[in-house]
Amino acid sequence: MKRTILTLLATLLCALSFAQEKTTYLVVQRDTCDLFMDVYEPVDIPGDTLDRPTILFVFGGGFITGRRDDPWVMPWFKLLNENGYRVVSVDYRLGLKGVRMRFDLFHLIQSANYTKAAVDMGVEDVFASVRYLADHPELGVDMDNIVISGSSAGAMISLSCELEACNRTVRAEILPEGFHFAGVMSFAGAIMSDTGKPAYKRTPCPQLLIHGTKDGAVAFGKMGFGRWGMFGSSYLVEEVLQPKGYTYQFYRYVDHSHDMAANMLANWPEEKRFLEVSVMGGKPLVIDCTVDDPTMPVWQSVSLDDIY
Predict the structure, then answer these.
(1) Distance (Å, whole) CA 40 – CA 56
(2) What is the pLDDT of residue 306?
(3) 268, 191, 145, 35: CA torsion to nearest 10
(4) CA dihedral 149, 128, 190, 258 (to 10 degrees)
(5) Measured on CA atoms in the order 134, 138, 142, 148, is the torsion positive or negative?
(6) Which among 59, 84, 61 has a CA at the least distance from the CA of 74?
(7) Distance between CA 211 and CA 21 in Å, rounded?
(8) Is the full-model pTM beyond 0.85?
């Protein structure tokens, strides 16, 4: 517990000391709120010839809280900028804010419906941000070179954005013709589905999946019933990505819980390899790795009951 508290305090202090310069844009006005995006420009690296993607970040918070400019994520944005990556951090409506979630047998379907609706709302809003970037070329974002990334709820939205872009759903119709993400980085994410196992109608982009094996908030494997399900990283790899020969890099962190949603700084070596090899290099590198790393920061375990 003492180590956990010290780690938390150190991270918060680092976050406060690394306030990033940003430019903020109004993306869209919804009935309930205005949605914005923040753009953090990369550092110019002399002699750098790599065609680095823009990192589009979707924050977490259980669909009830969180901000696109949460202080704790600022050191990671700074690290990305210093390595030549532009960061675009976006808003989305918090679809479970004020909703009573119950996970007993009699309310599972209702709670699943609420969660699916919140994910769908988030996908719609993130797609609005993608459309904004396409409509404003002066921002300098290459629409063929965007890596979507997310933490927790944001990871769920990010994975669903790629699924819907590949399947050209109604929500995806706002996207530019032929648009595709260059990659996905999911930190403790899953796909929420009411139609059974997720399936891609076209080959998905490379995916980096980082997840704790004892995650009590977002399913590591599968949590569901009938056609309803929360399909976590392990299930997606074993039942969807691997059988089809899709490109992915998966890191299973032994005995970690939902803390892997917030360890982006500690996972920078894995992210760097993914971006340079799978995204920029275009190489079909597949990694499925079980990691037992005592140096990985540990946060307090979080369950669904803790969040809701």
Answers:
(1) 10
(2) 66
(3) -100
(4) 60
(5) negative
(6) 59
(7) 30
(8) yes
Model pLDDT for residues 242-284, shown as the tens digit of each residue: 999 999 999 999 999 999 999 999 999 999 999 999 999 999 9
Is 1 exposed, middle or buried (CB count within 10 Å of its CB: 0-12, 13-18, 19+)?
exposed
- HEC per residue, 69-80: CCHHHHHHHHHH
Residue 66 DSSP SS3: coil
Contacts of 68 (CB under 8 A, 6+ apart): 36, 37, 38, 57, 59, 89, 90, 91
Between 11 and 36, whose confidence is greater? 36
CATH 3.40.50.1820 fits 2-307, yes or no: yes
Tokens of 141: 């974002």
Q: Which of 5-14, 110-119, 264-273 has the highest mean pLDDT?
A: 264-273
231 residue type, one letter: F
CA angle 128, 228, 30 (to 5 degrees): 20
User: With helix as H, strand as E and coil as C, how does the chain read?
Assistant: CHHHHHHHHHHHHHHHHCCCCCEEEEEEECCCCEEEEEEECCCCCCCCCCCCCEEEEECCCCCCCCCCCCHHHHHHHHHHHHCCCCEEEECCCCCCCCCCCCCCCCCHHHHHHHHHHHHHHHHHHHHHHHHHHHHCHHHCCCCCCEEEEEECHHHHHHHHHHHHHHHCCCHHHHCCCCCCCCEEEEECCEEEECCCCCCCCCCCCCEEEEEECCCECCCCCEEEECCEEEEEHHHHHHHHHHHHCCCEEEEEECCCCHHHHHCCCCCHHHHHHHHHHHHHCCCCCCEEEEECCCCCCCCCCCEHHHHC
206 pLDDT exceeds 50? yes
Domain positions in the chain = 2-307
User: Which two three-digit tokens encode residue 68?
Assistant: 């696109």
